[in-house]
Design brief:
2 copies of one chain form a homodimer. Chain A is an alpha/beta fold and about 200 residues long. Chain A is built from 6 helices and 12 strands.
Chain lengths: ~200, ~200
């Protein structure tokens, strides 16, 4: 059966972004490349991890990952990723504000889901068929799926920095056993892949 | 020059113990062996990490690591570790309540320091001579030394469990760059050794 996976870059203190996101600051107060520099500086050393970020049959993300919130963005904003986003698959965006689906180039569609994480997962599973579903982020959405026991595999890309204060993975997630599937590291990032029990 | 090191077992969400510690529950609400089972179940696979926990020339710990707080313990409690604690060296206990030093068997002495982390470190450095100083725990003390930029090396032993709510490493620690020195893993624990920049 297809799996529900999440691969996400975190600081050592499990921050995935800073607070105060705006259109000019997609990662809020956190420098944009702080957690993602390894992807651009040494991609050949992280082929499997990078491939896994974009090999799902469908994606789920939060409204805050799709873009800045607020009235002025709701009708025209089409995500951070330009005309041809890297997903090439259906993306379900969890939101409180209904909006018509957006069809992008290259196979990405953004579908807005207003009735919760289980509905989004059901739609994503149906869209993905036999392929995996990826929970793309941000922290709040990953935490909701973890807390609900709906993630099968968690691949942390741990960057050697204590960020201090930001949007944090695992907040509100209760005791959960994991199994270490794989660990490897370069000087820029430590990859730890867990099965969620 | 000797270094200030900290090696500590944490959950994936950076908890080192649960809340509500008592004499019967040294790790509070957290099961005692949750983060430390690897030490007892497969010690031969973690020789370097275990040796590092007890190879310093002096140790610093918080009053809550030394034992449960409260009036009835203050005068008679001699730590969790029996007549011959595993430190075999001077241990400086950060506390608000003055107390005479305790001399244990095997070279461990507990000296109570009431004038703060810098004083404790100064005393520990003097006692350690050319050997390293170890910040033994708990979370609050490690966080104070990290926030003050006084730790040179941090060795995290990351156990594959999300604990959910407990005494957490990195709280109150601001942005801090680390350098990955070494990463290795067994199915029970991932060791990541960082230099603190």
């Amino acid at each position: 059966m297809s799996k529900v996976k999440c691969g996400i870059a975190v600081s050592v203190d499990n921050c995935v972004a800073g607070h105060n996101m705006t259109e000019a600051k997609p990662f809020g107060d956190m420098p944009t490349n702080l957690l993602h520099r390894w992807m651009f500086d040494e991609p050949e050393q992280h082929k499997a991890e990078l491939a896994a970020l974009t090999d799902a049959g469908a994606y789920i993300m939060g409204r805050n990952m799709f873009g800045p919130s607020g009235g002025e963005y709701d009708k025209t904003w089409q995500g951070w990723w330009g005309d041809e986003p890297p997903y090439h698959a259906p993306v379900f965006v969890l939101t409180r504000t209904p909006r018509e689906p957006i069809v992008m180039q290259g196979g990405t569609t953004f579908t807005f889901v207003t009735d919760g994480i289980e509905s989004a997962l059901k739609q994503a599973r149906a869209a993905a068929g036999e392929r995996d579903v990826s929970i793309a982020g941000g922290a709040n959405v990953v935490n909701q799926y973890l807390a609900a026991g709906l993630i099968d595999e968690l691949w942390l890309h741990i960057v050697p920095v204590i960020y201090g204060d930001g949007k944090r993975l695992f907040e509100g997630v209760g005791m959960t056993n994991l199994e270490i599937l794989d660990v490897r590291s370069t000087p820029m990032v430590t990859h730890v892949r867990y099965e969620v029990k």
